[in-house]
Amino acid sequence: MNAIPLLLAANTLCLCDLAAGTAYAAQTDVSLPPAVPEPATTQAPVSLGETADGCIDWIVTFFSGLNYSDPSTIFGLIGSAAALCVIIAAPFKVADWWKKRRASKRPPPPNGSGQNEILPATEPAPKLKLVLTNRSAVPGAQGIYSYLYFNEKPRFVGRDAAINALMEMAHAHEPFMWRLLCGPGGTGKSRLAFEVCKRLSGTTLNGSPWQTGFLDLAKTQFDFWQNWQPQQPHFLVLDYVSDHFALGHDAEPDSKKQRHNFLAIMRLLADRASSQNWQHPVRFLLVEREYLQKNPVSAGDESKLHPVVWYKEIMAKTDREGLQLATCCHTGTPLELTKLTDDDLLKIGQEVMDNEAEGDAERKPLPASFINDLKKVDPKKRALFAIMLASYLAKGLGDSPTRQEVLDHALKLEHRKSWKSANFKTEEYKKLVRATITKTPQNHEHCDNDTAMRGSMINHGLGFIDEVTNDFYLCPLEPDLVGEYFVLEGGGRHGDGTRRVTNSELEAEIAWCWKNKPFETTVFFARCIQDFTTHKMLLHLFHTTSKSPLARWFWGKLAVNYIGRLGDAGDLASARAVFDAMVDLEGSEEIPTLRAEASANLMNAYGNSGNIDSARDVFDAMANLGESEAIRTTRAKASVNLIVYYGNSGDIDSARDVFDAMASLGDSEEIRTERATASVNLISAYDNSDDIDSARDVFDAMVDL
Fold it and tell me: Is 444 exposed, middle or buried (0-12, 13-18, 19+ CB in 10 A)?
């Protein structure tokens, strides 16, 4: 039997295989004639066993009938074997060639990221990147760094009610929930959030492990949240919400854009979680220092405290999405971090005393006066001050120290335990000032080639090496309160009492920060104003600013609050100095409004101190600031307070003059509300002077409002 028919059959099969793959061939520009379909035939179904037996019988019959003495038979078999190899290999070769051709035509990934711009629908969306902390615990670190929350020293104590409340939110049935955690700096907000994340991270919910950690909102785009689908339960911490309003650092002379980005993300998540019935819950813990702030023209009346702007907006029920987001607030109220109990503070203090005994055989007990000493150093009895006070006492530096002595000791200890070991010089201190103000690690080229300095800084938790560039970065000094004091004190003092960073060097660094990081610099000074209102260096440095319109506008917002805080502290001279510095403000149409608010705060400072004549002078000057709705509303609020000052002093006629002048300020709903409030105050003044008839006249006139 000749093998030529087998060769022909093999070649025919090869062509048929390619013809059947015409869809492939068309894409590779290979032209093939169309396959001719065979006429359809009807066959009885054949079982798999019958087919196999038939094939075996045919193969045995075929090969037993061949004439192996004929050379053509041998060559035919060899050719048939080669053809069969082609049959088997051809589809794989074509597919491999096609893949390589497609790969060569595929556009390169954007920015060399190695990731396609659009993910195939069959691939899962990337997970949300979280970190339990953006800093690494350093077991051997000493000084204040060793007491940062992620080092878990001292041990977590107390806060049972807060822990239970947050765990209750985490395990609630709703797909999306959030809550505000607030408290002054140094109370342990970040430590509490870290503790909740840590406890949840080792557990599961409905079989899925929790993903927990601190979220940097600036590193996620709005589009990400539009497509994000949680594949496991999430507990996300947004530390210091106000810090995230400058997303992308494209702030206009108005931070509303950034605030709206944050609000839009929250509204979007609440809506998507509800409409898509997410199977895995998502929780947001929003951390902020203050929940309530004083109205710029509150005249010291604590009843006029109001929620921070972003919280008021996030709770606004102006539309369906707003109502849904407000409803997602767990318990509907903020979780305010109160003082730790005295017993918990004593536990913290004793552990710090033990840690810093430096190998003494006998541990020193806390003095019996510890709680009273703490209250003297910090009336709020914050955990951070308990740590620093115990550290001071552990060194035997004296009893009943002042607040400044405790803070100075913290800087001296940091120098002795960390900075000195890392061979810090002026350049390092200046870099640390810049990093601390901007809350941004600073590239420190000075030690790129100094391996010993790098290693020492890393060992003390002062910085890190970028994994991509191999550059060394110096981290901000934390906690915030210690970092603020470090900057105000010019990095602390040398042994001879001089500052490690001179005033001129400090001013130059702050000018750089205002120019390059205006929003972050604003946040830093806002915290300084809260924590160190009357620090003399703050007043000096506050006047060091860039000439850029954005920085000047931010500075003006700060000045309004600074004047109010200085007034509350009774430092009228400094309040007036800041107010006078606002005369140079320009570059934004909102500047006159800021001046009006600053005037109201300065007027309150004078009025609360009994200097009504100076209060009246500031009040009258407000009329020259313009006639915008915002300015007239601020003047109306200031009028309410001035009437109180006149009424308290018994000058009813002057109170009446201010009241009557309010009629010319306009008829907006807000101004009419202020006029109604002023009516109540004037009625009270008339009542105190026994002029009931005049009080009745004012009361009757309120109907027209």
Answer: buried
